[in-house]
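Record filed here:
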Amino acid sequence: MPQSRNPGGARMITAEDAALLVKPGDVLDYGITFSQPDAFDRALAQRVGELRDITIRNCLSMRPRAVLEADPEGRVFTIFNWHFSGYDRRQHDAGRTHYIPCNLGEIPDYYRRFIDRVDIAVIKATPPDADGFYNLGPTSLWHCAVMERARIIVLEITPSLPRVHGSDVRVHATEVDYLIEGDATPTPELPSTTPTDVDRAVARLIAQEVEDGACLQIGIGGMPNAVCSLLLEANVRNLGIHSEMLNDGLVDLYRAGLVTGARKVTDPGRIAYSFALGTKKLYDTITDNAEFICHPVDFTNMPDVIARNPRAIAINNTTQIDLQGQASSESDGHRHISGTGGQLQFVRGAYASKGGKSFICLASTYEKRGERRSRIVLELTAGNVVTTPRSDMMYVVTEYGIANLKGRSVAERAKAIIGLAHPDYREGLAREARAKGLVPPHYL
């Protein structure tokens, strides 16, 4: 946590006065998801005609950013983002937001070692408790590292923010400079998507590999959530949870009594996460609930920490995979769509866990401009970023099957992955694999 910088306690000012603290050339940090400020953001946007060369770092925006709406050509505000939401992706497409390549679990270290400037950090927090501590809510991630680096710290006090238990989620009034009054609007929600038949087919294959006592990490999206639904149906017991993101699917397992954490080594008996994102049901469940513990991301996402828990299970999505097992999960050619997040770190951590398993899942096809295309390809789309290298890939899963690539040659990998493709594309993929020498002439 930041050191005591204000023995008399933080001073309450208006959002407009807080925005006046910003000077030309400043670097600001808005934090992550729904911890990003709203009242301050609107006040800063009103100064668009007075400022120049303002840099803002943020991540996974859950609401439109007023500074971007007020500066559509990006003449004043430049946004650098650690992981895109749908809104951030649209801003990137318009040239107003720019991605920062990262492994999410390394970001606190980036601030402490490599990022030399945070002039002002503005992050949401709950009203203070009886001891004068403000709670940063269920988004620990790298907020403490940001505040350690920041020249000025502003907390936007938001009553609707869930108050949670965690290792670094409380900030005392003496550790910050200013307080501003935030909005009374509810915490933004991320609705659960209804699993498709393909999602459930993939989930069924993965659920068969999850044993009693497994420790789960679930990524964002319909397929990972469908796995939680299948585990509910299968009544898998004594589960643990050690995850970057806490979502509705994991909370459903907890509410059904299937999560005990009894076999965990880290935080035994508790559900560990770094940020929560879902519906009101999730937020209500974790509020003041000591069975959930929110950690900085450099704890939850470190492969050596993940590996301490036996039977660690990592379940994540990808958008394209080639015949050698490279997964591209964050871009569509040179168009960035999301981020590396914690995928690679959990792939490595789960593999290193005793009895652990890593699953990268995808639908075999997708529609683009009215045309069906295969997500399994001879080679990745030009410009696509490799999120999980072939050397790290363990299980690959589509609706047509599951294959473990560990210990397999290039030829064996190509054959196994072609078997996971939609039947309409298998012959063409086999022909391409032979033509490029990935497999012997008569292997397929």
About this structure: Residues 76 and 298 are 32 Å apart (CA to CA). The chain has a mean pLDDT of 95.
